[in-house]
């Protein structure tokens, strides 16, 4: 049995961020309260702010998400 402090120490020593965090910010219609973004990547209720990163992907891609994320940024900039 390990103590909470021992487990926390283990996590601090072994944790790394090798995963690509994406698919975390839902896009949806203006009347969808569970979606913080509209279909044009605008943050609802915040004028002039858009999210153009991997978090807006609705599904996981089968390739490295870097290229897809760059495309999202380019399309958003258009």
From TrEMBL:
Pfam family, one: GMC_oxred_C
Domain Glucose-methanol-choline oxidoreductase C-terminal: 3-73
Family annotation (SUPFAM superfamilies): FAD/NAD(P)-binding domain (SSF51905)
Domain of life, per lineage: Bacteria
Signal sequence residues: none
InterPro entries: FAD/NAD-bd_sf, GMC_OxRdtase, GMC_OxRtase_C
UniProt GO MF annotations: flavin adenine dinucleotide binding; oxidoreductase activity, acting on CH-OH group of donors
Family, per entry: Belongs to the GMC oxidoreductase family.
Name of this chain's protein: Glucose-methanol-choline oxidoreductase C-terminal domain-containing protein
């Amino acid at each position: 049995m390990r103590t909470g402090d021992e487990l926390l120490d283990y996590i601090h020593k072994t944790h790394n961020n090798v995963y690509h965090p994406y698919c975390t910010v839902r896009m949806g219609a203006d009347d969808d309260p569970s979606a913080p973004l509209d279909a044009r990547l605008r943050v609802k209720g915040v004028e002039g702010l858009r999210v153009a990163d991997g978090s807006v992907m609705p599904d996981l891609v089968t390739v490295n998400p870097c290229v897809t994320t760059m495309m999202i940024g380019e399309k958003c900039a258009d």
